[in-house]
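The following block was generated as part of the benchmark described in Methods. Ligand: zinc ion.
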Amino acid sequence: MKRIDNKELDLRVEVIAEVAGYLWERGWAERNGGNISINVTELCAAEAAALPALDGPYVLPKALPHIAGGCFLVTGTGRRMRYVASRPLENIALIRVAADGASYEIVADEAVRPTSELPAHLSIHDYLAGVGRPERAVVHTHPIELIAMTHNPAFLDKDVLTRLLWSMIPETRAFCPKGLGIVPYTLPGSQLLADRTIDLLDEYDVVMWTKHGALAVGTDLIEAFDQIDVLSKSARIYESARSMGFVPTGMSDAEMQELKEAFGL
Ligand SMILES: [Zn+2]
């Protein structure tokens, strides 16, 4: 970031640009769809604390005590992933949460306003920090085939979609062993959407927002992206089989059990 001379922070910006490019290339990031955040408190809290605010403070929907004083790289509201990829510094904000956890200020670089899904992102970071989990990255995107599948009520019952996606190709279960949790359709940008997502974060690798998109957390952003990518691959295999005119058989229960035992899943 231009206002902070910190190589580790620069590397996080680079990886946001890299993943933003993947989201655009896959067709998951129409217009300004999707958003990314990384908790960089351990990298630059002292440097960020010394900077005067460019904008804010903005009050958060609810106080977030576990990330009080923390700082985060977040993609900007209305910003397109294809431009986050090509010109990251113009499309990513560095924000600093107040010492009481009740508001935030923008401290770098340009006065980019954070994503409209900031309540969900920061609430998730607050939850992860509060329970001592190691994940620092959150990505939300619009994977076409996975979203399409949430338009079928038959797939929305608990773990139906997880079992179907696992059965398309063995690696999906190996790389996404907890599967996909489903949040019923909820207003985008709302605190309720954040709360419903957090309720599923312990049980599942990826959370699907019905008729909207996917959200994943990871120790780094690549890990979070990969979880959605693996599930999306399975969804595309399912779609491909259906478009060839047949319902895919999927791996049998015995084959799934063999895989589970072989890899200790
Ligand atoms: Zn979205």
